Amino acid sequence: MMEPFFIKSLSSFSADIDNLILLVTVLAGFWFVLAEVLFFWLIFRFRARAGVRAQYVTGKEKHLKRWIDIPHIFILICDVVIIVAAVQVWVRVKQTLPPADETVRVIGQQWVWTFVHPGADKVLDTADDIAISDELHVVANQTYHFQLESRDVLHSFFVPVFRLKQDAIPGRTIVGWFKPTAAGAHDILCAEMCGIGHGIMGARIVIETPEEHAAWVEAHSPVVDAEPAASTETPPAPETGSTSGSAH
Fold it and tell me: pLDDT tens for residues 105-131?
């Protein structure tokens, strides 16, 4: 029912990040609502009234300190729960690099994304690599490593449907991974202010079936010249046919 109001979740780890955000929202939201309800109740309960003198409260009395100490303990427990959950997600998404089916290179520069795909050999940095701007083509349910680079200033590779965001730093190659879970075409953005054209630095990630991706690779693979080497052997001389006559 609420799905149209949220960005789709289309990577193997996007649910982990969504659940972490939900956990933080629920715990922080609970304490926020409780504090605001109590705050406005106290304002109403101890509002100025005729004939009632204001009280001077030091906050040192035990029955008053409990209003601070007990919530403080529960909030610290909530903080520990959030930290443990966040570390688990961080290790699973950022510190663990599962084996890759393919590797792609992502290059950011003012103000365009360039993607280098492996060709039919599925190996990067070979003659059949496919380098294009503004479109990254991948296969659903395959694990990809990406090599993220920047040619000029700081950029940030952001794929909302994957819950993936990684800064691109000049002079460094940053390795990460993702695994798409469903076919479709979705936005890639730059999430780091990178100059006057930052707002138009967008691209698309196209998630395909294996058959669709194979057809795309075949259609976009560069033509590799493979001229036959000139032969150094001398061709044999043609045989001379013999003639025969009959005597009469």
Answer: 999 999 999 999 999 888 999 998 999
